[in-house]
Amino acid sequence: MNDLKNAAKSTLNNLVRTLPVLLAVVFLIGLFKVALSYDFFLFFTDNSILNLFLGALLGSVLAGTPITSYIIGGELISHGISVQAVTAFLVTWVTVGFVQFPAESFMFGKNFAIIRNVIAFCSAIVIGIIMMFVLWF
Prior knowledge:
Blueprint: H1 2-35, H2 48-61, H3 66-78, H4 83-95, H5 101-108, H6 110-136
Helix pairs in contact: 1-5, 2-4, 2-6, 3-4, 4-6, 5-6
């Protein structure tokens, strides 16, 4: 029973210690979502490769939840943005967290956060390229 109390106390201490960082991340995400409108995404060009990287970069900076990604993806496609760019945007939107990086590096370590984000970014590019081939066939 004593071990359970120690574990609960340790968990509560960790939660209290990381709560300010988590709240800051939530507020930053909310700020990015409110500050940018859909007109912001209209700078995509006719170049599929450039759009792929633009989508991945934007998704990396503008992190969000999977449920909102479906709505945003549909709106982007309805504005004429290529499926490859939208795919890269949505994958990085959910998996790469530039905004969440401080909290992630604080909780899991800087090396882990960097490696995970680089792998997720590269994976988004690869998935976007695969989408190009899928749409060609």
